[in-house]
Amino acid sequence: MATPLRIALAGLGTVGAGVIRLLEANGALIERRAGRPIQITAVSARDRTKDRGVDLSPYAWEDDMTAMAARDDVDVVVELVGGSDGPALTLARNTLQSGKSLVTANKAMIAHHGLSLAQSAEAQGVALKYEAAVAGGIPVVKGMREGAAANVIERIYGILNGTCNYVLSTMEDTGRDFDDVLKEAQDLGYAEADPGFDIDGVDAAHKLSILASIAFGTRLDFQAVDMIGITRVRAADIAQAASLGYVIRLIGMADVDHDDEGARLLQRVQPYLVPLDHPLAAVDGPTNAVVAEGNFVGRLLFQGAGAGDGPTASAVMADIIDIARGELGAPFSIPVAELEEMPRADAGHRISRTYLRFIVADRPGVLAEITAAMRDAGVSIESLIQKGEPANGDDVLVAIVTHEAPEHCITEALKLLEGSASITEPPLVMRLLGS
Amino acid sequence: MATPLRIALAGLGTVGAGVIRLLEANGALIERRAGRPIQITAVSARDRTKDRGVDLSPYAWEDDMTAMAARDDVDVVVELVGGSDGPALTLARNTLQSGKSLVTANKAMIAHHGLSLAQSAEAQGVALKYEAAVAGGIPVVKGMREGAAANVIERIYGILNGTCNYVLSTMEDTGRDFDDVLKEAQDLGYAEADPGFDIDGVDAAHKLSILASIAFGTRLDFQAVDMIGITRVRAADIAQAASLGYVIRLIGMADVDHDDEGARLLQRVQPYLVPLDHPLAAVDGPTNAVVAEGNFVGRLLFQGAGAGDGPTASAVMADIIDIARGELGAPFSIPVAELEEMPRADAGHRISRTYLRFIVADRPGVLAEITAAMRDAGVSIESLIQKGEPANGDDVLVAIVTHEAPEHCITEALKLLEGSASITEPPLVMRLLGS
């Protein structure tokens, strides 16, 4: 019989238990595909006594998970603890330094420390794999690292956070407002009690920065991601978007500017208006989807479940199978030392149609003030809707869609309106995604 | 410098020239991702003098392409000649037997001879790779072989032929009839002068049989694919489908029946009615898309360009990069000797809603005859539309959608109607895809 690949599992939450269930259910098939048995030898979690619905008795128990890196009976450590630093990072470092491979679902840790971990893996000739860290069960890390490897990637973007997509698509389906839908999502377990990581765009930004590094061959740079979350999107915005033939989706997008000063990387997470005929418009609920545009392959779309124990366990196990098959290549497709350090692009010259929503006092001259600012900034208005009914106390909503305009002109128009007594809350700005 | 991987290219049609252009355009990037240079050393095609828009002078020329298998300066032969047998197969066999890896875009050859070629590759410890043979640029072979490898696949289906999808979606957009749109597709180069391979479903069946083997771990069995093409789909069928909230797509679908007698494989290529809220309904033009449903990952969707020189060259080069990285694993995910021989399933007990379209003489009693046959076969009618205007000479069209019924009941109803003087051409039967 072929030598088993021996696994230690750190973290026995829903995903960790899911990995055990997956191996129980599909173990024989996995062995045939991997060419050798995959055996869990040791596990570790905070509470040994908790009932997780799986039998832990076959496995050695470690109270201190970082000790798993030193075990002789372990080839691969699977880190499912979470957190960008702390014990997860210590375990990851120890594992790689001791010449074992690491598989992780930890997007925060990869976004913050992926390069140093990858260097450690490369130095030791072991694998660092993190398919489950991006878009749950969708094999998009593999798709970019290998499937699209022959291409210069021109743009990569997608729906990377299931919680936000659930909230936005539920608002769309029900007409209900943000706070209401978020609360329901929390009650249903789709959103965390502290939802900031999701709704402020941090989680999507983690994933985007990882994808961008693989796609563009650049040094992973999470700090350079511009983030705007979805907390300020109202039911009225979704209704306005619908009347224009758009839905609103939180999208992470990255591409590269080339000009005389060289290449610059733009990474951002923002709510966009997505036209109904775009494949991302049909992505509802907690589903994730990633679009990659390559110079030879054209547009690729990868779609599937962005979270959940089953899909995440599937991605974790795909990484383990790769390792069992001997596929241990560079974690970011190109060795870390060869990744390009690319400065952050300024988005000011980017041209797009833009949705601007104002909440204004319902009094004479407000529209004149807004439209004058747009004119003075050189922004041409395609459509303007002022809703009759009050949107906030006595205040009313004004929604504008501009013709194509550089972003710096939009910024300038908003600057001209700063301090206006008529505008009662900061305007909401969302770009329209092209088809 | 790392040792170059040396490539011989057999076939310099649009895809072969595309591979050369891809390497010219993206060679430096590909070298970084592959970890070593990819060098074309020799090329072969029928006509040496033809202008292909690429410079062939750097490469050795072979008049006899099968000779490339014996060259000392070649590590990988890329077969882009086509045809299930003949010189392509000879080259493939010689290449593998001489211990070189083979990359091919040849779906017919893989569908007919994939297993024997894979055995030869396994025996020699070299790679047989064929990403470009299925769904053009979409990395779905990799997605199934590796990305979804931890799953029992419950069903795999998709839009696998761009020509058919172009014809059907153009009929849908324009209301024009089949012959008219096919002719236009031929004029535009989207369909072959002899379109049978595409429109009769053979090409989709080649691809489906390959995907099914990887997905289910079964011996590739192209002969067992049931095929119904799109030649009998009329504009009126598309209009009827639209009125019900469906579009018509040619879909290849495979799944496994489990009963007391063991597992049986159902593979078929048929036009289906696809509900508008299904991701495949939005797949227009020559785009391909594959859905795989796994027991842990849930539903995965892979979508992209199904043909064309750029996308196909991208898939070919992804295989070459894999080989350069040392990824040479079993061509069908599991070694050929371990693939299961699975008998063909009988579809009779499958339950679905079904669309039946009759062309009938416009005279009294026709509807009574049809509806009586349905009743006698135990098929319940959900909706029935008889169009007033003539569909064919004086004959008129009757379209029926049934409630869920086993396929053998539908077959029985049609048998009862066989030889009816009122029904002037064989009925068209299409199943409705679930959401």
TrEMBL record, chains A, B:
InterPro entries: ACT-like_dom_sf, ACT_dom, Asp/hSer_DH_NAD-bd, HDH, HDH_cat, HDH_CS, NAD(P)-bd_dom_sf
Protein name, UniProt field: Homoserine dehydrogenase
Pfam families according to UniProt: ACT, Homoserine_dh, NAD_binding_3
UniProt GO MF annotations: homoserine dehydrogenase activity; NADP binding
Domain ACT: residue ranges: 355-431
PROSITE patterns: ACT, HOMOSER_DHGENASE
Binding positions (NADP(+)): 10-17
Native source species: Altericroceibacterium endophyticum
Amino acids binding NADPH: 107
Highest taxon of the lineage: Bacteria
One Gene Ontology biological process: methionine biosynthetic process
Keywords, comma-separated and alphabetical: Amino-acid biosynthesis, Methionine biosynthesis, NADP, Oxidoreductase, Threonine biosynthesis
EC number(s) on file: 1.1.1.3
Binding site for L-homoserine: 192
Family: Belongs to the homoserine dehydrogenase family.
Pathway in which the depicted protein is active: Amino-acid biosynthesis; L-threonine biosynthesis; L-threonine from L-aspartate: step 3/5; Amino-acid biosynthesis; L-methionine biosynthesis via de novo pathway; L-homoserine from L-aspartate: step 3/3
PANTHER family documented for this protein: HOMOSERINE DEHYDROGENASE
Catalytic residues (positions): 207 (proton donor)
